[in-house]
TrEMBL record:
Pfam families associated with the record: ACP_PD (PF04336)
One of the protein's GO biological processes: fatty acid biosynthetic process
GO molecular function, one term: [acyl-carrier-protein] phosphodiesterase activity
Listed name of the protein: DUF479 domain-containing protein
Organism from which the protein derives: Filimonas effusa
Keyword Lipid biosynthesis set for record: yes
Amino acid sequence: MNYLAHAWLSFNHPEILVGNMISDFVKGKRKFDYSPMVQKGIGLHRAIDEFTDAHAATAAAKQYFRPVVGLYAGAFVDVVYDHFLARDLRENSEEGWQQFCRHTYHILQHHTGILPDRFASMVPYMRSQNWLFNYRYMEGLENSFKGLAFRATYLDNSRDAYKVFEQSYDALQACYDDFFPFVKTFAFTQFNQLLNE
C-alpha cells in the first residue's frame, strides 16, 4: 500500500496517521524517538505491509509487472492500489476524498517538526501537487510511476510499467477488489489492538 492507503487505514487518528506515513523513513531504533502513538502508527504501517505482501491478490498483481520491473513489482502494485482506492466510491465520495486529502496534508503540516528530514522535504510537493487525490487520475499515476523509476537503482524508466498498467487495468482492478476489504478489516483490528495496549 502507498501513501493514500496508509493514511486512510489510520482511521482518523492524527498521530497514528503520522507514524503510518513516515514508517518507511524511520529505521531501526529511530522508532523510539517518537511518541507512543506515532510508534503505534509505525507499527501499523509495517503490519499492513506484511499483510499486503502475503495476500494472494497482491501476488497475482505483481505477476503483471514482474516481467518489466523485476523485484520492483511490489512497489508498482502499491501505487496501483492507491489509484483504485482513490477512485473507490464504496470507501468515500469524490468530494469526501478531496476533504480527506486536505485534512491529511494539514495533519502532516501540523507535525512538520517531528517528520524525518527526507519525508518532511517531500510533503510540500505532495501537498502542492496534491499527490494523494491525483492518484485517481491516469496522469497522476503515471507521474507516480516516473517517481518510482527515478528513485529505483536498476530501472531506466517507467514506460513499460505504465503500458502494463493500461493493458491490465481490469485485471488489476479485480486484484484490488479482491484485496482491499481484507486489508481494511485487518488494519482496523490492528488499530484497535494498538489503541488498547
